[in-house]
Specification:
The structure is a homotetramer of 273-residue chains. Helices cover 26% and strands 40% of the residues of chain A. In chain A, strands 1, 2, 3, 4, 5, 6, 7, 8, 9 and 10 form a ten-stranded mixed sheet that branches. By secondary structure, chain A is of the alpha+beta class. Chain A is built from seven helices and ten strands. Chain A is elongated, with a radius of gyration of 24 Å. In chain A, a hairpin with a 2-residue loop joins strand 1 (31-47) and strand 2. Strand 1 of chain A pairs antiparallel with strand 10 of chain C.
Chain lengths: 273, 273, 273, 273
């Protein structure tokens, strides 16, 4: 079936494996982002207690000038293979490495990973881990400016103020996702954003709850009803006061216990605009 | 770059495009299922009100004897291209067509789709659609027996009996999925299984709820607390009484409003075993 | 367990079910978007051949002034319950209805759905359906301007130019997603964007391929190698020439057959900026 | 809004928080599985090189006799909070702990996680990590028998024998998933199952490939074409010879580069039946 490879193989060897990507391109179109997407890799993330190991999904992109046909994808992997310890602060080092190795003007990186915080149950003080979805992202622009974003998706309880008010007893409540995406002026701990998000909900979540804890969180949520509108306003108020944050987008999504769709609200604000 | 195609093309033409799949295989290993997976196709589903159009994801497999190298994948698509109207009853026709066209001993088919039921809100009677995930599946065995399964995933409200009992006020509740997978002795309507599932929860869900409806569903759930254990037992009791069902698996999953994981229970029973 | 409902119920009735959402809010924070998310609903979409029924996932949001506590979520559902026939052109009607019914300054709508095009196989001309993921979105601003976006995710074949050049025979190829997000100056058919995307790949996909068709698409892809960089440049060149489009973002993602991650490229351009 | 909590709270304190779950149930229906689902937790997995840290998603279920109303969900979390190091061998310890702590007849556990293997590229020998999805599961029956399953999902390259044979040049190929689910008679390394799966494909995948490696994998796949039918037969042949495996299900799924659906095949066999 196969064409006789001999002549062609000789030809290849003579060329010592052509570098097609480095050839010229004549379409006069620069590319904003090119690279690798959805690569899983273990990482060590700095946290308040020291560091934690987790598994991140990486997107790593650089810009490509109009005159070059393609980028060199394997170099992104080589940067990761050095297994850097990652923190909000070290993002700029990774971005610098990307522009250097790929000879690019600008670079863009996102890494999304599960992040764990050990929490004590509110009454029994039983310790357990809570998991959050965190995304660190950074950009190095052609003028060598660095922009860093942290995004946390924080599951929490929301209890409906309308349902509580109009009902003779009970109130519908549900799991919600509170999401903060913050552009940083200065580093802050991932745990600080999680704490802000949890304080904006009707009640925070825990891994282990014993019966006295379950009584506590049930009553706490009932005493503290919140619409999605309330939760994004609470988040915005707190982030407006936080000097280390230059811009933010906050979201609240309720996986409604009385509907098969979500209630949703969003506020965004750029203090530096 | 390309090897000169002329000689090879002539060769191909002489062979009039070889049928590689039909060749003999010598590994003496029959294949239980081979075919296409995750194909999206519009379908018309029979419902109590007549029929509804939806988009199904199909898996279509046949058995392959040990002596044959491969099946003919395009024939599955041809069967779907005839755009049959589908119901629990017509599954056996589709399965027959699969064994005939693919010259197979046995066939297996699943089609998963969103299914809509128009419901009236409990107080205001406002009409709206609720969506459910339904999977019809069928099997035709080498002995020409037909087995048909219907699976419905029904979102509902569950309210925790423990939380209600131990708390001074309120009770945590959340969206749950009640799942019934039933092997049928005789056809029944998808809507019948949905109604059974909804009756097993603390309260059913609706698309539109006006304030008097929201008051109703809040109080209804509070009056009707259910663990996942309670819900699967309610489902099992009802399916045990249903003569048209020969075997079932029932599941309840609570997307807990106080945890970031689910509570889950399952009962399975084969009356015909 | 339950507190005696009688007294409280009387209280409720006297208030005729309080409208908590309409109350004043004192936090002085307007909300950019509030509404419903991930609601499934059947729709009729206008296409070149007339129209097609499909199942859409809706997000519907309005802005909320700082002085109001909450929006009225059930009104979004009421708009959908009128079951409008939807096209790129009718988006502005839906947005107008949203600002009117919810007494809002601005509105934002997205609807994502599977969309089908009947295609003839390249040699045998056998007809079959191909499915694409389409998202229509629209925004009505406080100044009553309307912005409409169409996004299509088009699966296609890409064949690696480097692999072809350096290898004695064969070339790795894979399924790719070409994504066009276009802000429209004037309406165009969804099918026109799909055709643009398919022309940028190494080869387009089909539902049914008979053996002569399979030979055709294999050779066509081999004759037409494309990096992700090539594909986004091809897309950008064509969209630059298209007067009905005011801004675009184009993406190419290869689900690499030789890696467990994707290769990815993106170009974005706003002609009206 | 809230009913005066005082009287009720006194009542609660007197009861010292009621244990609703432990009450009697009169429906005479035992529950096959009840517990927690989709809980994320960090784990240490034994591998050939020692151990690796990863993030697992746990399902942990026990049986519940007909006479008891509910299980004690928090105890599953307590078992995980002891952060056991996990291997195929230690599954039986975890299952024993589950039946003991939850006073249950039988227990069922699954843990799914990304698993990494360091591989050298075939020509340049550059080292990089490849990620796989692994699920360990185990069952402890009422008669104290232990059943252990390992499932690996191995991404690989498949190249179509028909496309190669009928085409003048090239052959369509794509990323495939080869899945082995094996019931173990004796422990084996996860890496052993991965190696079996990779040997059944047209070529295995790597994180980093330099140009000489890319030439190698392209030619290797072209020389080694495989249908999904071929791949499951190769897997079955190898697992039939493996004495440590008592039963298996093997699957091959091609994310076809010429279609928008998958080709799929499955063989299952229970040697101990």
């Amino acid at each position: 079936m196969t064409p006789p490879p001999s002549a062609k193989l000789v030809l290849r060897d003579a060329k010592e494996v052509a570098d097609v990507q480095s050839r010229a391109d004549t379409r006069a179109l620069p590319i904003n982002r090119v690279g690798i997407k959805d690569l899983k890799h273990p990482v060590r993330i700095l946290d308040r207690a020291g560091e934690q190991g987790t598994i991140a999904t990486f997107n790593m992109y650089v810009s490509l000038p109009h005159s070059v046909k393609g980028t060199h994808m394997s170099r992104f992997l080589e940067i990761l293979s050095e297994r850097p310890q990652v923190s909000v602060e070290s993002l700029s080092l990774l971005l610098k490495r990307m522009t250097d190795r790929l000879e690019a003007d600008s670079a863009h990186l996102t890494m999304a990973f599960p992040f764990f915080v050990e929490k004590a149950a509110p009454v029994s003080k039983t310790l357990s881990l809570m998991d959050y979805r965190v995304t660190l992202s950074g950009e190095r622009t052609a003028s060598h400016a660095i922009r860093r974003w942290v995004k946390v998706v924080v599951p929490a309880t929301s209890l409906c103020p309308c349902s509580k008010e109009i009902s003779a007893y009970g109130a519908h409540n549900q799991r919600s996702h509170l999401t903060i995406s913050a552009r940083l002026r200065e580093p802050l701990w991932i745990e600080e954003l999680i704490a802000i998000a949890e304080s904006a909900a009707s009640c925070e979540l825990y891994g282990v709850l014993k019966r006295p804890d379950e009584k506590y969180v049930t009553e706490r949520a009932y005493e503290n009803p919140r619409f999605v509108e309330d939760m994004v306003r609470e988040l915005a108020m707190q982030l407006n006061r936080e000097e280390r944050i230059g811009a933010y987008q906050v979201e609240a999504e309720n996986f409604e216990s009385i509907h098969n769709h979500s209630a949703y609200a969003l506020i965004e604000h750029d203090k530096d605009a």
